[in-house]
Fold this sequence. Notes:
The complex is a heterodimer.
Chain A: E1 13-17, H1 23-48, H2 54-66, H3 69-94, H4 102-120, H5 126-155, H6 159-181, E2 188-190, H7 196-200, H8 203-227, H9 229-239, H10 241-246, H11 251-278, E3 280-282, H12 294-304, H13 309-332, H14 339-359, E4 360-364, H15 367-377
Antiparallel strand pairs in A: 1-4, 2-3
Chain B: H1 2-28, H2 36-56, H3 61-89, H4 94-119, H5 124-131, H6 145-151, H7 155-173, H8 175-185, H9 187-192, H10 197-223, H11 232-245, H12 250-269, H13 275-281, H14 283-299
Amino acid sequence: MKTNARHVREPLIHLTRRMNVPTWFAWAVRVGAFAISMLVCCLVSCLLSDKVNPGFFFKYLFEGAFGSGMLIMSLLRDTAMYLLLALAVTPCFEMRYWNIGGEGQAMMGALGCALVIVLTTGRLPVWGTIVLSLAAALLLAVLWAVIPALFKAKWNTNETLLTLMFNYIAICLGGFLIKKVAPMGTGILNFESGTLASLIGSDAVKSIVIIATAVVVTVVMFVYQKYSKHGYEISVVGQAPNTARYIGINTRKVIVRTLLLCGLLGGIAGFLLVSVKDASFLSDSTAESTVAGRGFTAVLISWLAHFNPLAMALTSLLVVFITRGANQVGNMARLGNSYAGMMVGIFFFFIIATEFFINFKIRFRSHADAIRGGEETK
Amino acid sequence: MIVTMITQAIRFGVVFLYGSTGEILIEKSGHLNLGIPGIMCLGGVGGCLGAYWAHRTGLPPAVVVLIAVLAAMLVGGLGGLLYGVFTITMRCNQNVTGLALTTFGAGVLGFWGTQMGDKEIFFAPASRYAFTPSLFFGNKTPDNWFATIFLSHGVLVYLGIVFAILVYLVLKYTRTGLSLRAVGENPAAADAAGIPVIRHKYVACVLGAAIAGVGGAFYLLDCTRGSLEYVIDAMGWLAVALVIFSLWRPNISIFGSFIFGFLYILPRYIEGVGLAEKELLKVVPYAVTAIILIVISFFNKKETQPPAALGLPYFREDR
């Protein structure tokens, strides 16, 4: 080895991990990041288009999200959808099992639901179809969650990559079903009957069904995580796998059981999307599908909210707010459909960055430090 | 027809090859970059803008292609730098940062696509330089099957293969490559051995993203012959799958990319099969990758595993 005789200088920036971060500090950082992200979005939009100025941007941003009673209702409905999907991946994240297959699990739920509707409409009473389609949605989604879990538990297969592949397999299978049912169709299956939506009719009631489901699931999951023995086991397996082994927790069992639960929630989400929200089934690509990338966004939401259900609800609300608001800005300034995606991306970067400022303390090298450092080395 | 199919398979496969070569370089440094689809979108935007600008200025064809490649590498590399700042310096979660980058990149591509029409930026004339067989034949059409399959491509196809071979050689035979692999396997041990871990990670993330960025530009300039298509992110996910398929080895991924390309274009060429079955064919690359993933974990050989520290942030002061 070559000896390095050169004097090594102290780095300019020194990072230390913060211990015991006060809650107010963490929230102050997050609120600050949200405010800055909005300003940056506004700035970027102003630079991209002559039509946009700050007044225009914020006017339509809020109008698009909260402009009317109906808009607020659909804002809450979309929030509930994101919240459900985020809850569906949260238990596995707490276990440090990186299930990024929420998209595929919800997609399989939607596929199961659509499959039953196609097969049984006209042969069964509507209620029969609905119950069966819910059952099929749950079954397929659970299957899609548990298969990677079994491989993880048995052979330690990399679950991030495997669930990622399962997402795409699910989308392709959905495309197969659509072409099988309607080879010459437009690529989207519309269901006139056999869905919960066909019984409900009114959009407001549909939204309420979705919101109510999300609220119930949130409460149940909160209690499950916080007060049940299962929830405790999940956090032990996640935070200290060795401890889990020593105190006799069957890690494999916990993994499979937790993923079963995740699959159930994904199935519920898929069922709600097909049978209540859309009354249709679409599966062309990640963006052009019934789940439409929400499963991926839910991963972000769950992680950014530190698995706290209330914080997840808030994050979901912010995501939907920006998406819908930016869509409106984009429409008014003729910026196209993808403009909103860009804005959501910017928002995510700022919220992800808060992690760093909450967890790490940044110290710049000062003159005093340099002298002290010098004395110590003598 | 079989010759056309093979030629097209090679051509489409190279998109995956660019993406996977870049991703392999990044993953070898211990970073799972799920932002590759977004980075390829960004690179596509950069490359097309570069080609358009260079063509409008009236530069010679070779320079137009060169500038397109450099612009794609620059924009893709900037995406990689953003990812690096978040995951290396700021130690944010890699999956989350990657997914956000994909959202952002796909948004930028779509946005740019709608603006391009309004502002009358057309890169199709410039793309001609990328896809004409310029390397060996000038503008002549090749006359035998060998020349058609191997020599009739645009210059970017060969560049993709060169990149893959270079990355393979660097990873396998150089000291830098060894250090980089050490960083991906066990950053703490590498750090103790005096390898500058952070610098290696940054170089890998930025260079890898730059290479992947060329993939996006290649798709728009060569495969679609200069028309804008928004499927780049889907191709990016296939590139991520190809990394696993080729067991983190760029030399295998040259052949893997051909297989993926073949499967990608297969539905367009087979006849007498229903639309639904063609739809089902799209499953094959993902399903095979999933099976490979399971099989390598089943045998659990060290040579075929993902880098051990893949996905884990490294902070020297942590225990």
